[in-house]
Write a structure and sequence with these properties.
Blueprint: H1 4-21, E1 27-31, H2 51-61, E2 66-71, H3 76-83, E3 90-93, E4 98-100, H4 116-128, E5 133-136, E6 140-144, H5 150-166, E7 172-176, E8 179-183, H6 189-200, E9 204-209, H7 214-219, E10 226-230, E11 239-241, H8 244-262
Helix pairs in contact: 2-8, 4-5
């Protein structure tokens, strides 16, 4: 973990990196949602993007040479409900397993691949552990334990992990902030970001995220790209911001810099 001096140094370097970034002809701004654009909350359905972040992204959306993308562990339908994305944005859901192009948000339909028996096993875990919640996705199941007493959360995650490991067939297990997910997909956010870069032909990419699965995306960024880790914890990202509020301020600065660079 970086200390306070390192964090200050990161912020100074980030300012220069952003100034160079906005000078690129075509930039891709790809962002995790929960914990990055929206503060973490106990119930995932209560999550909402901070107003300042939304306003900054709306400004950037209307600028030439800027592509916006949300890159989330959420399924696309969940992302649509809580993020209220602009039609011009790319959406990457299920940790890179779902990619929806601008204009296709509401026509997209994902086929459900979760085995019924596995769904029943996770439902039983929720019934046995008070306060936990089950999120059903087209490609997996997510057990949410945020806000649950720590020993109860641990027992619930252990039970869910056992149910996933005992299931026949290849399944991926991912663990994040108060969540354990069991999925039929092996895609990662790295796959999502690389696909976005290929589709858009962007000259430089900015990615910001706060959880373990975001490290996959950070790892594939190039020397002209910007990787930002949000919050505490270990990360390979070159830059760090303390929370979603700081991300909002960074996006406001990015929008202003882009306008000034194109003037």
């Amino acid at each position: 973990m970086t200390n306070s001096v390192d964090r200050d140094h990161d912020i100074d370097n980030l300012e220069q990196a952003l100034q160079d970034f906005v000078l690129e002809r075509h930039i891709l701004i790809s962002l995790d949602f929960d914990g990055t654009l929206a503060p973490l909350v106990d119930d995932p359905e209560d999550s909402r993007m901070l107003p300042r972040a939304a306003q900054a992204l709306f400004r950037l959306t209307d600028m030439p040479g800027v592509t916006l993308a949300l890159v989330s562990g959420r399924a696309i339908d969940s992302l649509l409900r809580v993020a209220s994305p602009r039609a011009e944005w790319f959406l990457v859901g299920s940790h890179g397993g779902e990619i929806v192009a601008p204009g296709d948000h509401h026509s997209y339909r994902a086929q459900v691949w979760v085995p019924p028996g596995l769904d029943e096993a996770f439902e039983q875990v929720v019934q046995d552990h008070s306060g936990t919640r089950l999120e059903r996705k087209a490609f997996g199941l997510a057990l949410h334990t945020r806000g649950v007493e720590s020993s109860m959360a641990t027992r619930a995650q252990d039970s869910a992990r056992a149910a996933c490991e005992e299931w026949h067939g290849e399944l991926s297990i991912r663990v994040g902030h108060g969540i354990l997910e069991c999925s039929v997909l092996t895609a990662t956010k790295a796959d999502g970001v690389l696909a976005l870069q290929e589709r858009t032909g962007a000259d430089a990419t900015l990615f910001a995220g706060d959880d373990v699965t975001d490290e996959d995306a950070i790892a594939v960024l190039g020397p002209s790209d910007i990787g930002i880790w949000v919050g505490p914890g270990e990360s390979t990202a070159r830059f760090r911001l303390p929370d979603a509020q700081a991300v909002s301020l960074m996006l406001e600065s990015l929008a202003t810099r882009r306008i000034n660079a194109r003037a």
